[in-house]
Write a structure and sequence with these properties.
alpha/beta, seven-stranded mixed beta sheet, binds 5-O-phosphono-beta-D-ribofuranosylamine, 198 residues
């Protein structure tokens, strides 16, 4: 049974999808044993508490350098004997020691079809506003491995979602979350935990 840590920064709807997938048996080869928030007070921490999952806050601004921040994250993951790190609506940049210690064991969900609308500065509603501004008819979500390039790691799963007339960034974000993110992230986690992603 693989031990999973989920890193969060906000509402935690992707975390909730993972917790629900564990309950329903969609995720059966792994167990979420830790939630790490990038700042205190985010609702994702409430979700962890309600699910009885250990949680902690490791905030970049508590540290003098990116190196110290990544070292703290890495030390926590090792103390919890984590096998897979899932970035779920996580807004801090991970790098350095954590990336090398957990190479090909960190995955991220991005709310577009990479390589469109991704990279530095593309997060949250901005991603969907960029898709609307461009006028794409189809967007979606991508689960990918995390490497030193923002949203640059090997793609694991993608799911397309139609853009509808009259969509706003908010309505599009909601559809992409419901129809894509909350489906492919649990699927990707189970693929990893059951050894199907080499
Ligand atoms: C959303 O913008 C979602 O598309 C992206 O992260 C943000 C918040 O996700 N993956 P969550 O509700 O905190 O999981």
């Amino acid at each position: 049974m693989k031990r999973i840590a989920v890193l969060v920064s906000g509402g935690g709807t992707n975390l909730q999808a993972l917790l629900d997938a564990e309950q329903s048996g969609v995720i059966k080869s792994g167990k979420i044993v830790a939630v790490v928030a990038s700042k205190p007070g985010v609702y994702a921490l409430e979700r962890a508490k309600n699910a009885g999952v250990a949680s902690t806050v490791i905030s970049r601004k508590e540290f003098d350098s990116a190196e110290a921040f990544n070292h703290a994250l890495c030390a926590y993951m090792q103390s919890m004997q984590i096998d897979l790190i899932v970035l779920a609506g996580y807004l801090s940049i991970v790098g350095g020691e954590l990336l090398s210690a957990y190479q090909n064991r960190i995955i991220n969900i991005h709310p577009s079809l990479i390589p469109s609308f991704c990279g530095d500065g593309f997060y949250g509603l901005r991603v969907h506003q960029a898709a609307l501004d461009y006028g794409v008819k189809v967007t979606g979500a991508t689960v990918h491995f995390v490497n030193e390039i923002t949203d640059g790691g090997k793609i694991i799963l993608q799911k397309a979602v139609e853009v509808q007339d009259g969509d706003t960034a908010e309505t599009l974000q909601k559809r992409v979350m419901e129809e894509a993110e909350w489906k492919i992230l649990p699927q990707a986690v189970e693929l990893f935990c059951s050894g199907k992603l080499n």
